[in-house]
Amino acid sequence: MLKFDHVSKRYQDAGDALIDVSFHLQKGEMAFLTGHSGAGKSTLLKLIAMMELCSRGHVLLDGQNLNKVREKQIPFIRRKLGLIFQDNKLLQDRTIFDNVALPLVISGYGQQQIARRVRAALDKVGLLRKEKKYPLTLSGGEQQRVGIARAVVNKPQLILADEPTGNLDPELSAEVMQLFEQFQNVGVTVLIASHDIDLLKQMGHRVLTLDHGNLKTRSS
Amino acid sequence: MKNKVHSRHHRQSSGFSDKSQAYLHIHLHALFSSLGRLCRNSFTSLMTIVVMAIAISLASGFYLLLANMQQLTANIEASNQISLFLKSGVSDRAGEQLVQQIRKNTQLDKVVLISKKQALKEFKDYSGFGNALDVLEINPLPVVIQILPKNTLNDLQSLEQLLIELEQLAQVDFSQMDMQWVERLQSIMQIMQRGAILLSGLLSLAVLFITGNTIRLELQNRQDEVQIAKLVGATHSFIQRPFLYTGFWLGFIAGIMACLLVALMIMMIQNPIENLSILYDGAFNLLFLNLTETLVLLAMTSLLGILGAWGVLHYQLQQIKPE
Fold it and tell me: Pairing state of beta strands A189-193 and A158-162?
């Protein structure tokens, strides 16, 4: 599903962010990406989401070489992904429903389909009753779950989460992680960047550890 | 390849009519949400729109002024006819003799005498001072000889030469060549028309840049939204659609406001013009923008709004990269 083949990323001003990183995530696999801050976790996720291009090597998503994707095709690559951010990146002036509906509206789904899918996604994260509320009226954990609902509403093949539990207490973090496991169970590939080592150990999934841009360990 | 498979899957699941309905819905939504956004920021929008409306009304007002003036000059045909006004003491009969004398000139096509009586009648019919003239006991008008040179005589120099010859006749008070003042008037109109085109061009540019700048600010305000939309897979055309509609609304509303401004200005000068028109027996009708002109104006301002927005979006959207 996702393959890094000797990938390096060098920023002109900040130097090497990733050095010769290779790994392969199978379809339906769930893995954690960890490392100290500045180790290159965000850079690695950005390469997959095509927010950056790698300097050397190849990133293959679903068999497609991202180096060879043209600018105009980028939106269609991103539609295969479900992106979850630490700061949620919700639209504050739209309701929860509209926030979650955004990827579907963008993909051109009909109104009925949108309503059905949005409600299913909100139901999954337990926020069905809050669809008419605005993000700021929700708690941090709820906002994070709205972000997750938005990421999964378009049935992505790969979920990428950047510190999804960064702002949450341990109990909520565990809940969010369970949610990810549910998606994995229905065949979605999940890659989560997190520095919450304790939580990762409890979960027992594969862990990719970055250290100064080098991929250190592989455990499964 | 993968994309094709993906989109085929979409089509199967949602159907063609569903897709087109969704497309229509997206457009309608962008159309009305951009209008709603303008209304919510009504003060800022209003300031922009008023500035645009003033620019547009300047251009269209000038156009209308020209149209009204053209109405005045439209009836005047260019001819090289010469009118000789004889001295007031010269009688109709003496005028007739002079006509005979002038006819000997081979350069001339037609020489016609307008007697004092005829002149008065014509003046009554066309001037609008009809009744006022009845009060006069004596006819103050001179005998006029209208001379039409042959068509072969069409260069200004030889015409002027002829004019000088005719003016030297003892009975002639003064002469006038129609062509001269028609030509002058026409060249003034041409200058004004050229001026109107230049002015419209400049003011269109102003409208273009005002919209562009407004959209640029709007884009800055909504940068987060644009970034998020890009991250969840929005294409440029999806992202720019509501902004283009904002440009459309700005142009459209400013166009309507400009039409109202122009109508208001014309109404303000309508009374004095009507008074003048009554003096001339209603020969002059004040023109407003007609329906076609109004529609063309609205279409043009809307288009300018869209173009201004598009120009800015084309450059700025590329630069907004999700972080």
Answer: parallel
For B162, which DSSP code? H
| Beta carbons within 8 Å of B130's beta carbon, 6+ residues apart | B124, B281
Q: Between B21, B228, B235, which is nearest A89 by CB?
A: B228
Sheet of A189-193: strand order equals A81-84, A158-162, A189-193, A30-35, A206-211, A214-219
Joined tokens for residue B27:
């457009």
pLDDT at A120: 94
pTM: 0.75
Give A67-74's long-range contacts (Cβ < 8 A, gap of 24+): A72/B235, A73/B3, A74/A50
Kind and range of the H or E run holding B279: helix B236-279
Q: What does the pLDDT profile of chain B (323 residues) look like in tens digits?
A: 444 444 444 444 446 677 787 788 888 888 888 888 888 888 888 999 999 999 999 999 888 888 877 776 665 555 677 888 888 888 888 888 888 888 888 778 888 888 888 888 777 776 666 677 777 777 778 888 888 887 666 666 777 788 888 888 888 888 877 766 767 777 888 888 898 899 999 999 999 999 999 999 999 988 889 999 999 999 999 999 999 999 999 999 999 999 999 999 888 888 877 777 776 655 666 777 889 999 999 999 999 999 999 999 998 888 888 77
Side-chain-side CA neighbours of residue A205 (13 Å): 25
Spatial contact of B211 and B308, defined as CB atoms under 8 Å apart: yes
Give B87's contacts (C-beta < 8 A, 6+ positions apart): B142, B171, B172, B173
- Partners of residue A81 in chain B, C-beta under 8 Å: 233
What stretches of A53-196 show up as alpha helix (H) in DSSP? 74-78, 96-107, 111-124, 140-152, 170-185
Domains annotated on chain B, with CATH: 25-75+186-319 (no CATH), 81-177 (3.30.70.3040)
Query: What one-letter code names the amino acid at B72?
Result: L
ipTM of the prediction: 0.90
Under-70 pLDDT residues of chain A? 217-220
On whether any CB of chain A is under 8 Å from the CB of B232, the answer is yes
Q: CA nearest A69 in B: which residue?
A: B3
Q: Which residues contact B295 (CB under 8 A, 6 or more apart)?
A: none
**Residue A202 distance to chain B (closest CA, Å):** 31
Cβ contact A113–B18 (<8 Å): yes
Q: How far is CA A73 from the centre of its chain?
A: 19
Q: How far is B38 from chain A (nearest CA, A)?
A: 15
- Chain B residue closest in CA terms to A80: B233
* A126 touches B: beta carbon within 8 Å: no
Note the residue count of chain A: 220
Query: Pick from B173, B194, B200: which is nearest to B85 by CA?
Result: B173
